Amino acid sequence: MNTEKTYATYLDHMDELSKFRQEFYMPEDTIYLDGNSLGLLSKRGEQAIDDVVNSWKKYAIDGWTEGENPWYYLSEKLGAMTAPLIGAEANEVIVTGSTTTNLHQLVASFYKPDGKKTKILADELNFPSDIYALKSQLKLKGYQPDEHLIQVASNDGNTLKTEDIVKKMTDEVTLIILPGVLYRSGQILDMEKLTKEAHKRGILIGFDLCHSIGSIPHHLSEWGVDFAFWCTYKHLNAGPGSVAGLYVNKRHFGNEPGLAGWYSSAKDKQFDMEHTLTPAADAGAYQIGTPHLLSAAPLLGSLEMFQEAGINQIRQKSLQLTTYLMELIESELADFGFTIANPTNDKMRGGHVFLEHKDAARICKALKADGVIPDFRKPNGIRLAPVALYNTFEEVWNTVQILKTIMKEERFKKYQNERGVIA
Questions:
Q1: What is d(CA 257, CA 281) in angstroms, rounded to the nearest whole number?
Q2: pLDDT of amino acid 1
Q3: Are 301 and 278 in contact (CB under 8 A)?
Q4: Residue ranges of the alpha helices (H) in 95-216?
Q5: How far is CA 309 from the centre of its chain?
Q6: Average pLDDT over residues 76-80
Q7: What Rg value do the Cα atoms of the chain yield, rounded?
Q8: pLDDT of 181-208, one tens digit each?
Q9: CA 179 centroid distance within chain
Q10: Among the residues of 127-250, which ranges form H helices?
Q11: DSSP state of 120
């Protein structure tokens, strides 16, 4: 293992994606490694917001149908631009809502208990909001979550075994909701195999792609996944609270959405103002309300860069960055009590490295004080996410050197070992 800074410089020199770094606003004197929580603002994203504002200024209400990106069709356009990132057809994807409202929509649409098939299968490591939504959907259908929500257990508190999930696919399960990538440890679940096993048993399956979209390639349509949903403010860099997205496999087209709304309508019928809904014939049927144009706009600029870079090349660099980071940690920080808790196998590791340490909360505070932005996760986790489009190998090298100094000089001890309001 070459631990010299010159090697990091060499890797940056060889990086074919390095040109994209200049497209982002990089925080001054800061190494930003929290792109798996909130991606940085891109200059193209900023311009796209200005373009929507100028369209509003120029066209007023006619902006819905005039200009370079008519608002009435923007959700569909963004869906088509997103589709290659998840391996879907353009009309299977729509940019709409938020992560949790889209999950509510999809569960309301696809959770159809029948006879003894009443249970939803999830996991105990999923992001809490997904579980909140599943429990509330069960209650709305008159079922007790304690009995009808099954959560697959983890053996180590960080990862899930495919065989453990499959074992829980009993004849009482009618719907499965799982993350594509676990938000803490970064483990990639075997979405293809899990979909195959679910369908063998007559179970529908959907995935939360919040931590995988824009970070790893997917082949949802090829795998036969029934549906998926995601946010756009992490690896997709669309900004805080930006409009989310969802995917519905085309074999489910023609069904009415569980939660119908103004934008569920077929575009050519929407302004007929009839009180009987004619749903859109594709994923557009799963929209509810009018799209939030100013919160969707940055995605236009960001997705242009994904088209130019290509998700496979992004994935290749991401793996190089996280591999390099893990090797430096093992070489430089071996004596300081860190455990690499994410999968080390490339096929199972998403876009971030997950360290565990008993002083994780205050180590994160010390890193921030020294210009490195990490992410703390209770009870003892540190997430470090070098993002392929804007982070460098030299930043990874510098981060490990800063962390080494913090540990050698015990700088972390001047902070309380507890999370802030936002971790």
A1: 11
A2: 75
A3: no
A4: 99-110, 128-140, 145-148, 162-167, 191-200
A5: 18
A6: 98
A7: 22
A8: 999 999 999 999 999 999 999 999 999 9
A9: 9
A10: 128-140, 145-148, 162-167, 191-200, 220-223
A11: E
